[in-house]
Write a structure and sequence with these properties.
By secondary structure, this protein is an alpha+beta fold. It has one domain. The protein is built from three helices and six strands. It holds the Pfam family DUF6083.
Length: 122
């Protein structure tokens, strides 16, 4: 399930560590992204910005859910939840996975698609 949804990122550093952690940079494209836990104990790399649902394919749509304390309005943690079931309205904001926006990932996919054709023509 995690592989199908793109939740393959490594976990965040120890939450008890008080060192400020900047968003990591992608090794393929150099852009920044954020890593969030999912509800099924995996981690997903999400974009820093929200986009309208019409611009994000359904497979890449995620939302963040705040988990608050039952006795105080303090947010304890944030989880990433994949948007499914009820389709969002076209203008509703969703957070795309970094995999969708990564220029390095797209280049890798395009070269993988072109490599069999170039071998058969040569």
């Amino acid at each position: 399930m995690a592989m199908d949804e793109g939740a393959t990122a490594p976990p965040r550093p120890d939450p008890d560590d008080v060192i400020f952690v900047e968003p990591p940079n992608c090794v393929r494209c150099g852009s920044r992204f954020r890593v969030y836990p999912t509800v099924y104990d995996r981690w997903v790399s999400l974009s820093l910005a929200e986009l309208p649902a019409k611009d994000v394919p359904p497979h890449f749509r995620w939302r963040l859910v705040n988990v608050a304390s039952p006795y105080a309005p303090v947010v304890i943690d944030v989880f990433a939840v994949r948007v499914r079931g009820i389709e969002p309205l076209l203008g509703e904001p969703v957070i795309p996975t970094h995999q969708m926006l990564c220029a390095g990932e797209r280049a890798k996919q395009q070269s993988a698609e072109k490599s069999p054709d170039s071998d058969s023509n040569g």
